[in-house]
Amino acid sequence: MTVTLRSLETAVPPTILIQEQARDVFAAQPGLTRLGQRLVRTCFDSAAIDTRHTAVTEMSLDFRGPDPLFYDGIAGLLLNPTTKDRNDLFATAATALFIESASKAVAACPGLLPADITHVITVSCTGFFNPGPDYKIVRALGLNPSVQRYHLGFMGCYAAFPALRAAKSFCEADPEAVVLVVSVELCSLHVRTSNNPDTIMGSSLFADGAAAAVVTARGLPGGGPVLELDHFETVLTPVGEDSMAWNIGDHGFEMVLDSYVPKIIDEHIVGALEPLLALAPERQGVPFSSIRHWAIHPGGRSILDKVQSKLELSDEQLIPARETLRNFGNMSSATVMFVLKHILEQPVESERESICAMAFGPGLTVETGLFTKVTQWVSTASAADVHD
Q: What does the alpha-carbon distance between residue 160 and residue 297 come to, in Å, rounded to a whole number?
């Protein structure tokens, strides 16, 4: 049975952070040491990011409003709201993005009605509320109230893979299943000023975004390219448990992102790919670069550099990941979906093109997937003509 990702749509909040402007704001905060100021400038300038999006409208340099919680634009001060204040904004802003991206994904899938959705899987590690985003989607899109709902919470940047893997399993168990997978991350809610290198690194990288996909084994009218979900694998590296973590503090969630992470990936990425590629015998003993497309989670520029060097990939193969990082930053679990969408939208060179995808998260966990980009040559109209 072939399970396919039939549509993939993204959404971002409207407020845009210009990296250079954000750098200057963070570098000007009182309490920073000279070393802290240097770290801010170094991290922001070396991130290979031009723009990011945030759900915190106060972060716009043009915003002026009473009683700011996150940023006082008049004084130029980053404020320090409580975890509750941050999570309250998550409940409002994330709900809007969950609904927007889910609606776009359903609308972009030819021949699919909201009533056809049988399962909803939501993903986020940047906030909590209940009734949760899975419930909100069902109500807003008018899905069947009996739809099966699941939420994957607090897994981190790799969580889109467990969600897609679960969707694939549901469809293999029930050939009529149609699974809506939606990931929303509002990482910017948790930024703060600090002299801590991990906190500074996170502030220079993380951003907000949403992605939604429809996964099914059902025969639906053709449209644009789709992804066949071929194989998934999970690997835990032997080291790195303390190098990447995500903890809850009194003033937001606290990121641990050790500078050792790129080295861990460099040392263990080949071994992490072995279980996945063992499922595809045709990939044995051939260069990694023979896989046409690489959807790599852009956790940061140094991570992409290490992966490209270790696997001997071309600059062209890294374009989707680097462009996603440059235009959107690191949106945690949603990011690799943006990279996959970039690949889907690239010009088609053959009817079937292979994709290897990977993401990294706390543990250190490496999630990998093999997909096939398939061009759908038959449209709804032409199918009707053939039937006639």
A: 10
∠ CA 319-373-382, nearest 5°, is 125
Q: Are 254 and 247 in contact (CB under 8 A)?
A: yes
Number of Cβ within 10 Å of residue 290's Cβ equals 9
Helices (H), 196-259: 197-205
pTM for this predicted structure: 0.95
CA distances from 37 to 25, 192, 256, 300, 380 (A): 11, 14, 19, 20, 57
Residue-range definition of the domain harbouring residue 252: 226-374
Closest CA to 179 of 165, 158, 189, 198: 165
Specify if 133 maps to a domain. Answer: no
CB neighbourhood size of 71 (10 A): 22
Give the whole-angstrom CA distance, residue 316 versus residue 314.
5
Mind listing the pLDDT tens digit of every residue in the chain (388 residues)? 899 999 999 999 999 999 999 999 999 999 999 999 999 999 999 999 999 999 999 999 888 888 999 999 999 999 999 999 999 999 999 999 999 999 999 999 988 999 999 999 999 999 999 999 999 999 999 999 999 999 999 999 999 999 999 999 999 999 999 999 999 999 999 999 999 999 999 999 999 999 999 999 998 777 789 999 999 999 999 998 888 888 999 999 998 877 778 899 999 999 999 999 999 988 888 999 999 999 999 999 999 999 999 999 999 999 999 999 999 999 999 999 999 999 999 998 899 999 999 999 998 999 999 999 998 644 433 333 323 3
In a domain, 263, yes or no: yes
Q: Which residues are catalytic?
A: 157
| CATH at residue 247 | 3.40.47.10
Query: Phi and psi dihedrals of 226, rounded to 5?
Result: -125, 170
Count structural domains, the chain: 1
Q: CA–CA separation, 180 vs 117, rounded Å?
A: 7
Tokens matching residue 318: 């890294």
Task: State which H helix or E strand residue 254 sits in.
Answer: strand 252-257
